[in-house]
Amino acid sequence: MDNQINEVTIVGGGTAGWLTAAFLVRFMNLRDEENPTKITLIESPNVPTIGVGEATVPTMAALLKSLGISEKEFFLRCNASFKMGVRFTNWSHDEKGQATSFIHPFEAIRTQLGGQNPAYHFHKYGGPPGREGIDDCMSFSGTAIKKKLGPKFLTHGDYETQLNYAYHLDAGKFAGFLRDISIERGVNHVLDDVEEVEQDERGFISALKLQRQGRRPVELVIDCTGFKGVIITQVLKVTFHDYSKYLLNNRAMAVQIPHKDVSQIEPCTNSTALGAGWVWRVPLYNRIGTGYVFSSHFRSDDEARDEFLQHLGEDGKDAEPRVIPVRIGRMERAW
Ligand SMILES: Cc1cc2nc3c(=O)[nH]c(=O)nc-3n(C[C@H](O)[C@H](O)[C@H](O)COP(=O)(O)OP(=O)(O)OC[C@H]3O[C@@H](n4cnc5c(N)ncnc54)[C@H](O)[C@@H]3O)c2cc1C
User: How many domains does one find in the chain?
Assistant: First the structure.
């Protein structure tokens, strides 16, 4: 039996689908360029992408570099900005009841304090004079964030840096950027809706029925249809392990607000605790994405909307938050 897979089919054209396509078209054919594995991505022209997912972690920079993507072009196309860590505000209080704040820097621990464990040093002595946070004991990222500085010099090339970083990015533009690169590199793009899925006698997916193009036999399919799980949930009925009794935040509302001053972009994500969850604030180059992840056990949508808009104040005067129900848990088998 010939086990060679000649074509991989991806269903879904959000960030997950196009990242998968960009990865496979780059790495599947390194050994045998003469007989490339065909990569096809099928995406619905009718079902929109989720449109959130704008704050990343440093592995994203490593991934883009490994895909041979120009970082400069990525910044321009995706309205990206640097993210050197996350500032957590209002998650705890000091002895006077005042909200406290700390920065989680994206840095491996650099002992600026003579080789000692910085957590131990912080616990015993506090931060260096004038730099009170635990992040100040670990790296320069916290200081750079507070001063709104970037992680690299203008003379640095793509992915060269002084400090570890990730990105804030426009998720819709990022999917489009990866789409253009993937198509240029040979990915076959099909705009159609998967309506039905055929399985063989082993239960493996053997064909997809597309609304316009009809039946399409497949060898290996990757389901990137987001919360819908068109194949993994609706057809394969893979067990979903529900974690909602442990992770209570099960709804989100998101808005986009303008910058007051684009020269003051903070190179970090902000995470601020509110009454029934927390608010993310992700500054892109051209705007800020912000939203409230909350628990319906403690707030109705209307109550959460009021609380969120009050938190945004003047910044949210024209905002109309879009509510996103979130499924909390994991698939038993992702593969
Ligand atoms: C509130 C919230 C905040 C988040 N914040 C972050 C964050 O800051 N950072 C982060 O990394 N992640 C974040 N995430 C997670 C992130 O948004 C998702 O993991 C990611 O965007 C999901 O992308 P996706 O491509 O899987 O799905 P989607 O964007 O939902 O795309 C689904 C795709 O499937 C297609 N499709 C659906 N049905 C069919 C069909 N029948 N036939 C053909 N195509 C079909 C659609 O057209 C679409 O192209 C957040 C998620 C939520 C809910």
Answer: 3
